[in-house]
Specification:
The chain has about 80 residues and is an alpha+beta fold. The chain is built from four helices and three strands. Strands 1-3-2 form a three-stranded antiparallel β-sheet. A hairpin with a 2-residue loop joins strand 2 and strand 3.
């Protein structure tokens, strides 16, 4: 029997991304992650946070990259 849970989770993630829009400000990502904006800037400097892109002189995050980074940070394998 095919695993539909993975597809449903992906569809939910896609719906969330569509509702939020493709790009996020550091303030939006900080609120989403529950960390201060200053922490995001430190992570960017150290190269350990989610991918960040410069749009003109502004920093922007792609929501799908933030979600992928959060998933990669999990300490437990949820698939088991």
């Amino acid at each position: 029997m095919p695993n539909t849970a993975a597809r449903n989770a992906n569809a939910s993630s896609t719906a969330d991304a569509a509702r939020r829009g493709p790009l996020a400000t550091p303030a939006e990502v900080a609120a989403y992650l529950g960390v201060p904006v200053k922490t995001l800037y430190q992570w960017k400097y150290r190269g350990i946070g989610p991918n960040v892109h410069k749009v003109g002189r502004h920093l922007r995050y792609r929501w799908h990259e933030v979600d992928a980074w959060v998933t990669s940070q999990s300490a437990y394998d949820l698939a088991s």
